[in-house]
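Q: Entry one of two.
A:
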Amino acid sequence: MSLYDLTVPAYVNALGALSAQLAKAQAWGADNAIGELQFAAGRLAPDMFPLPTQIRFACGQAISGLARLGASGGPEFPDDAADFAGMQDQIARTLTFLDTIDPVSLGVDNDRPVSFDLPNGMVFDLTAATYVRDWALPQFYFHIVAAYAVMRHLGVPLGKADYAGYMMQHLRPGTAPTA
């Protein structure tokens, strides 16, 4: 399977679901007197980043993951969004970028070297395929799940269908529960 097929569709599916979750959170918040400032400050634990940072990091992980594989021109988000509109804008801009990715730009050699460093000075050397499997996708999904969990923690009635609703396109006809 190509690096494109392993990354871009997964990023598109998860970011689309995250956008829908944010829309549901905004509507639920309006109906339940939970304001945007409460969502913007929402976090799972005192030492974890708040919802807007989780959104920014999820978008950033998709962009930087593809950049390390050869894509270019991704948007930059130096700051957290201040409200739902800003979070939705970051997701929309990331999805627009993903739509421009040429599969050829990510290469066809899954065994080529990919290296990256962290701000603390650690440097990792992997193959492209190992990088996608062991870093790019897990880091991306960590922030997707953290954002989902912050919204659930604040009371938004999200469920598995909100997280993976894109799977409905693959449902075999006649197998959906009737009740």
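Q: Entry two of two.
A:
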Amino acid sequence: MAPFRVGAIPFAGYSFLFLAEDLGLLQPGGIRLQELRSNTDVLRALALGRLEAAALTLDEVLTGLHDGLPLKVVAVLDVSAGADAVMARAGLSRPEMARGKRVAVEGSAVGALMLSAFLESAGLRPDDVRLVTTPLPETAAALRSGAADLAVTAEPWVSQLEAAGAVRLFDSQEAPGRIVDVLAVRTDMLATRPDAIRGLVEAHFGALARFQSDPRSVVEQLAAHLQVDAQDVPAAFRGLELPNRAANQALLAPGGRVAEGLPELAALLHRNGLIASPVDASALIDVRWLRGGA
């Protein structure tokens, strides 16, 4: 049987998939993890049939759905509560000072949502800033090198930039519920590869449980996947909620925080011009995998 290919960028909330592989929790030969450069690349690979599943932000899943990509959300990997931020070079100490400045931001829905929320809070319009399209892992470097004056970025780069003197002007605490990372699966895989989906979800929760019970035992593996020093691993998870299985069930159940916020998130994408028409996300969530499988 062909391998079940799963794509993700090097990001803390996604790293338990790779940690699960290191710990031997993935089905040998059944699931193949692929590290990609940006979430835009991940979505493209899904659309081209080069991946069966992926770690993505929820808004990117909605964007894919709008573009005709059939996806189901089977688990929440993390919820951003300060981990995503707009950082500025020293001297730009107030949000309104962003007017006329260059902003490094990934060409993705999450980058656009964070930038939109920041500009709204600062009383600025989109044409008040100049965009420098940059993959998320390179946004901090763009700010440090002077290629940009501000960066829409995330941990661990937020903490690294703060340590180097950059200023946090805005973060996801001020936009609650907008940035949620999920495990998404192509809809056609639900019937044809249930064992792989079940195994992937179980492996994620197994690696997460190991991290939450004994983080020091896996710090080296996480550092390698996140491309940071071992001492910087705790900072990579700063501002992230990491829901276990029970918390997932609460978030994705009818009336749960993520399920309840889906219609508003879809409407927000439409209002901000990130999707051309409204999408119906009422059937996007599939919680049976949280209960052990189909």
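A: Comment on entry two: The chain has two domains: 4-79+178-291, 84-174. Residues 84-174 form a domain with the D-Maltodextrin-Binding Protein; domain 2 fold (CATH 3.40.190.10).
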